[in-house]
Amino acid sequence: MKLAQENQRVLLISSDGKRFLLRLRAGERFHTHKGTIDHDDLIDKPLGRQVFSHLQHPFVVLEPSIHDLLMHLRRVSQIIYPKEIGQILLRLDICSGKRVIEAGTGSGALTTALAYFVRPGGMVYSYEAREDMLRVARKNIRNAGLDDYVKFTQRDIRQGFDEREVDALFLDVREPWLYLEQASQALADGGFFGALVPTTNQVSALLAALKERPFVAIEVLEILLRKYKPVAERLRPQDQMVGHTGFLIFARKVSLEPSASPAVGEASACQEETP
Amino acid sequence: MKLAQENQRVLLISSDGKRFLLRLRAGERFHTHKGTIDHDDLIDKPLGRQVFSHLQHPFVVLEPSIHDLLMHLRRVSQIIYPKEIGQILLRLDICSGKRVIEAGTGSGALTTALAYFVRPGGMVYSYEAREDMLRVARKNIRNAGLDDYVKFTQRDIRQGFDEREVDALFLDVREPWLYLEQASQALADGGFFGALVPTTNQVSALLAALKERPFVAIEVLEILLRKYKPVAERLRPQDQMVGHTGFLIFARKVSLEPSASPAVGEASACQEETP
Amino acid sequence: MKLAQENQRVLLISSDGKRFLLRLRAGERFHTHKGTIDHDDLIDKPLGRQVFSHLQHPFVVLEPSIHDLLMHLRRVSQIIYPKEIGQILLRLDICSGKRVIEAGTGSGALTTALAYFVRPGGMVYSYEAREDMLRVARKNIRNAGLDDYVKFTQRDIRQGFDEREVDALFLDVREPWLYLEQASQALADGGFFGALVPTTNQVSALLAALKERPFVAIEVLEILLRKYKPVAERLRPQDQMVGHTGFLIFARKVSLEPSASPAVGEASACQEETP
Amino acid sequence: MKLAQENQRVLLISSDGKRFLLRLRAGERFHTHKGTIDHDDLIDKPLGRQVFSHLQHPFVVLEPSIHDLLMHLRRVSQIIYPKEIGQILLRLDICSGKRVIEAGTGSGALTTALAYFVRPGGMVYSYEAREDMLRVARKNIRNAGLDDYVKFTQRDIRQGFDEREVDALFLDVREPWLYLEQASQALADGGFFGALVPTTNQVSALLAALKERPFVAIEVLEILLRKYKPVAERLRPQDQMVGHTGFLIFARKVSLEPSASPAVGEASACQEETP
Questions:
Q1: Are A228 and B203 in contact (CB under 8 A)?
Q2: What DSSP line would sit under chain A, residue for residue?
Q3: Which of A40, A64, A88 is the last residue of a domain?
Q4: B73/B207 same-domain check
Q5: Which of residues 175-204 of D touch A (CB under 8 A)?
Q6: Is residue D163 part of a domain?
Q7: Beta strands A236-237; B19-23: pairing state
Q8: At C200, which helix (H) or strand (E)?
Q9: pLDDT of C204-215, one tens digit each?
Q10: What would the pLDDT profile of D12-46 be if each residue is shown by its tens digit?
Q11: A244 in contact with chain B, both atoms CB, cutoff 8 A
Q12: Is A15 on the interface with D (CB under 8 A)?
């Protein structure tokens, strides 16, 4: 049985489905449309149970999942959503111990997820040019308790990345095709490259640039998530859905040895045409 | 620079995009439509580079990602696909150190992914009634080098699970609604529950059963993945796509204290109606 | 060159893309966020051209399409959308001269489209139990100038339809499975049956009922429409889309002759299992 | 009660859901996997009923819908599918009496649908450069009994269209942006323009060209059709679906009067940015 700790973040869900993410602090009081709850009634008490507001409305108190954290992140920019992040994790082969570069940091949603999954032993190197974004992202990472797994750098990535031989690198920037040289230098041979862009024009520009460099196994895809109203006797998709966030592009960086045969020059010969 | 090891599995991609997953064994020879490659020319050599068949066709040799492993799994049943697995990981809050139950094992696709992401320190408890399935799954897990992170049990789960206080539990069985009592006993308070079913009738049956028990934050969704032909100057979605694999249902198991006020009895009062 | 007539409805589109559907009346003045336009400046003037408000903002004045009419319909209920209507027209084989029953009328969106396409020579028989709905639908049909092609009846369709041997029949009611006997009596042998329902439970109930009666070629489908921002250099799907309106069910009513061989009794033997 | 006529085309559906479109000819015999049926047993007999093969397998004999005709069209090229055609009909405001141009004809799928819906009183002017395509399309139109409603012309449309003041014009050609001048000359002011292209690059090129000419109300969209297995107790989407056929672009051609105020010169000022 897990007990809620002071300073821990917990998820409260009211009987009408409203969700609240709050940090427990001794002596504080949480106010909702369904009455108040004293933090002291939660601290050092079991998680995963029902509690009641002073108006006797039931709430459940839960440890937030990484999905909950991502959905409640403080945002100063369009964030990468869990539906894309799940795919990114598998495609970039993120797991405990990996060293990963991302740029730009933005509000830190992907940063949070990457840091969560490289634990323990891994590290996320996150680059962002804008100080205001970086400030929010730092706060989000600190709130998630993931400081030890992220190294932030404020920089225009035209100047390159400091790390070498990283396992994976993800670009969430407006013109990712401008930074493929920098990405290639940072990635280990065989390293995983990913990018997210919102427009088809950007996809085309990135594809063209990737094919001029030693990137192979190039794939483009998008993820659509369709939610249903969870009512047994009237099951149906929700009326509205997110129609678009972005296109995901994945590739692997390889080395084309200088001593190789003529075919080597034709990097594009190795491009994968997805069947 | 990573070197390919004997007995390691590597991914070979030919210049026309064909993918081959093979285990390196000294003295063996790999035959393709584009010529042969001696395993000895790969063993103890760098990964992430170009190699040539005896016909001088270029291949790239890569360390497979978890995504590659999942897509090349030996199958004796419909597997859970990466598009769902990415979402499952985030929803069930899988990460290093977690203890997770799944049933049924099937071919072991989700087993593989769960084991991959609970490393180090975690454990997957995988239950399957059919011995033939279990045999294939064991082999797939061994091939992936994940034996230390999976404990298989051959059992009809009507008899319950052996573990208690697990962090998450996933059901990929025909009638998941029959096993909610068993699932509740195994899950810690606040634990993550998930299930995948192919038909809407099963979704309705599971929703009805979940609402009779202390499960909250119930959500139903499906994931659609749309692939594009990765050609810069002729960008377009692929002609065919997977139209359906299954519906995902997620919930959290909570404790409704026996000593509570009348409202406690109404477990359904805590059900979340996703807006 | 077409001239706008008094009493005609025209579509005005402002330079910032706002759309206005108005009926031209001599002496009236149209007020917008971009200035006013005198109806007299439009009446007896060419359609399909640019006009200017008194503030010199450009508008285009157009004859509305059936799609425009449907999107600007006065609504007192959830309407059937053009994305479904296009499919319904082709599936029910609607065209000039056809006799079609629909129930319930609702706001009259499908009524409008059916009437539009059975011209000339055809007729739509529209049934609705609620008087308030019927009043709005009548007005919408009159506004569209389609009075001659629709016969409205206020009735609970449990009492059956007045027409016989109709070419097609569409049910947009909560429990369409209750009225299959009535539908069968009204439809010609080989006639087209269609229905729209929002939940999967309703689809299942209707399918079960259809299979107990002489309906064949049963199909279930849904239509998703994805809009793009029409910007050449930043092409992308819109952020939000309609995730669900309803499921469409189509079938053909056939006669199973009384004098036939034993196999005839098995109406279900003729059901089509879509591969 | 409708009787099948000699020379009429009928749809036969076997008890296992196989569909056959055949033309009835006295004395002929139809062979299937479920036995043979004499055409003479169908001619002058009622439609919409069950018939039996010589092996006593039940079939239903039906009048084909326009949807059936389109799905059984003889094809020498990628055709425009009913899911798009339904939308095109509503967007181009096709109905009895309309005059419509299309190019290229291809196999004649859209031609067939347009001809079907402009009856009576309307006309489709169909242009195609390739003689082999035209031959197939002519045959398809003749088979559908729609000769009186289509005028075919073999021509490279760079040379323009012969008609003027047409109500609507649809381009299903590789580079539709090259023919906007020709399209503008043929279309009435306010006329409906549509096009279908498979790649995003083509969409961008067409959008850029449309914005340089007096086209307004520009929209880009795509239609996804999801089929379900029509089984009441195991309802689910089909495993595979069509992931892409093409993007639809719609616009209205307007006149920008020469004598107008300075704002008139800015044709783009009238472009609609879909919100």
A1: yes
A2: -PBPPTT-EEEEEETT--EEEEE--TT-EEEETTEEEEGGGTTTSBSSEEEE-TT--EEEEEPPPHHHHHHT---SSPPPPHHHHHHHHHHTT--TT-EEEEE--TTSHHHHHHHHHHTTT-EEEEEES-HHHHHHHHHHHHHTT-GGGEEEEE--GGG--S--SEEEEEE-SS-GGGGHHHHHHHEEEEEEEEEEESSHHHHHHHHHHHHTTTEEEEEEEEEEEEEEE--GGG-EE-SEEE--S-EEEEEEE-B--TTS-GGGG-GGGG-----
A3: A64
A4: yes
A5: 200-201, 203-204
A6: yes
A7: unpaired
A8: helix C200-211
A9: 999 999 999 999
A10: 999 888 999 999 999 999 998 899 999 999 999 99
A11: no
A12: no
Contacts of A243 in chain C (CB under 8 A): 226-227, 237-241
Range of the domain at B28: 9-64
Residues of chain C with C-beta less than 8 angstroms from the C-beta of B221: none
Give the residue-averaged pLDDT of B68-91: 93
For CA atoms D3, D9, D10, D12, the dihedral sign is positive
The answer to whether residue B41 is domain-embedded is yes
* Residue D213 CA: distances (Å) to CA of C63, C253, D178, D266: 20, 50, 12, 10
Verify that C14 and C88 share a domain, yes or no: no
Residue A236 is nearest to which of C199, C241, C242, comparing CB atoms?
A: C199
Structure tokens at A175: 């013109």
pTM across the whole model: 0.93
**Position A2 in a domain:** no
Mean pLDDT computed over every residue of chain C: 92
Last residue of a domain, which of D64, D88, D103?
D64
Asked whether this complex has an ipTM greater than 0.85, the answer is yes
Say if residue C156 is in the same domain as residue C29.
no
Domain count, chain C: 2
Q: Which of A227, A236, A240 sits opposite C242 (nearest CB)?
A: A240
Q: Is the CB of B4 inside 8 Å of chain A's CB atoms?
A: no
Residue A229 distance to chain B (closest CA, Å):
6
Closest residue on chain C to B205 (Cα): C201
A273 touches chain B (CB under 8 A): yes
pLDDT tens digits for range C37-61? 999 999 999 999 999 999 999 999 9
10 Å CB burial of residue C264 (0-12, 13-18, 19+) is: middle
Cα distances (Å, whole numbers) of residue B249 to A11, B63, D47: 19, 33, 47
Assign residue C121 a region (left: φ > 0; alpha: ψ between -120 and 50; beta: otherwise): left
A233 near C200, Cβ under 8 Å?
A: no
